[in-house]
Amino acid sequence: MVLAKLRRRLSASPGTPARSPRGGFSLHPTPLDSGLVSGQVHDDRGSLLPDVNVTIVDRLNQVIGETKTDSYGGFALAVAPGTHRLSLTSGGFRRHSTRIQVQVNQHSPLGSIGVEPDDSLQLPQPGRYRFDPYHTEIRFVAQHIGLSKIHGEFRRFDGVIDVAPRFEDSRIEVVMEAASIDTGVKMRDDHLRSADFLDVESHPQLHFRSDRLTHVRADRWKVNGSLTLRGTTSPVELSTVYLGQRTFQGPGFDGDLRVACDATATLRREDYSVNWQATLAKGIAVVGPTVSIELGVQAVMV
Q1: Which contiguous run of DSSP H or E holds residue 270?
Q2: Over the stretch 41-57, which tens digit does the pLDDT of each residue have?
Q3: pTM exceeding 0.70
Q4: 63 membership: H or E segment, kind and range
Q5: Across all residues in the chain, what is the average pLDDT?
Q6: In whole angstroms, what is the distance from residue 181 CA to residue 142 CA?
Q7: Residue 224 has pLDDT above 70, yes or no
């Protein structure tokens, strides 16, 4: 069988990686008593879905295989033979579950699998929403001497989301106080506030303004806009996961209508004239050329 031949080729000797024809190492060998399950996941519009969580559990509800779909929505898992349950989960879609039968040394192709949108993830009602500073974080991560990462955040900020009847026409504006930067080390924070980096005396604020919202799929959006830092404005794209809207009752909430999202972006220091280039003896940069931005936002309708 094709699968058996492939496995024999990968299994030069039990328990060791097989050598590829060019002398390198290929994937770890697959047990000869397993079966292969594969499929390709798409949404209700036929678009292929990457990063879908694929999980296979046995009759005892024990996880025996898990992976994520690739950039073309495909997946393949080698698991023990038997009757199992395969589940597909991805933000913005309903959980898809199906029973599968896996045979010894057999390939069980599931073909094309469709998942349905999660109708409970409704877009926000039109209106103005303001960031809740107690439930919102604006964080950043930077590389340090090529070995570790510096984590920090801006403590003081204000943000407004103007949700339009057509959500793609909505606008987002965020202002951050540069002096509120906090990495947990005073000496480092003072340096970051200096003219080498944020230059807070001359440029006390960082300002983001969106100009386009684009729906990618389900709960995924792209927010394009511009960030002004140190008096220099450059385009920024935020990869955003919409987490939904809720009305909360109870102490401190008073029936507030809230929306939430997570977003990430990557900034290049040189785009904002941050050219401080200290290096170590071997030419290793003390601070990396890029900074990762992470936002966790809750906003309240006002």
Answers
A1: none
A2: 999 889 999 999 999 99
A3: yes
A4: strand 63-68
A5: 86
A6: 13
A7: yes
Task: Say how far residue 125 (Cα) sits from the centre of its chain.
Answer: 25
Q: 67 with 86: CB under 8 angstroms?
A: no
- Residue 188 — pLDDT band, cuts 50, 70, 90? confident
Rounded Cα–Cα distance for residues 264 and 137 (Å): 12
- What amino acid occupies position 53? N
Helix (H, G, I), strand (E, B) or coil at 10: helix
Tokens of 247: 């009305």
The DSSP secondary-structure symbol of 179 reads G
**What's the rounded mean pLDDT across residues 6-20?**
39
Q: Which of 163, 164, 179, 181 is nearest to 261 (CA)?
A: 163
Can you say whether the dihedral through the CA atoms of 265, 270, 275, 279 is positive or negative?
Answer: positive
User: Which DSSP symbol is given to 19?
Assistant: B
Whether the Cβ atoms of residue 241 and residue 263 lie closer than 8 Å to each other: yes
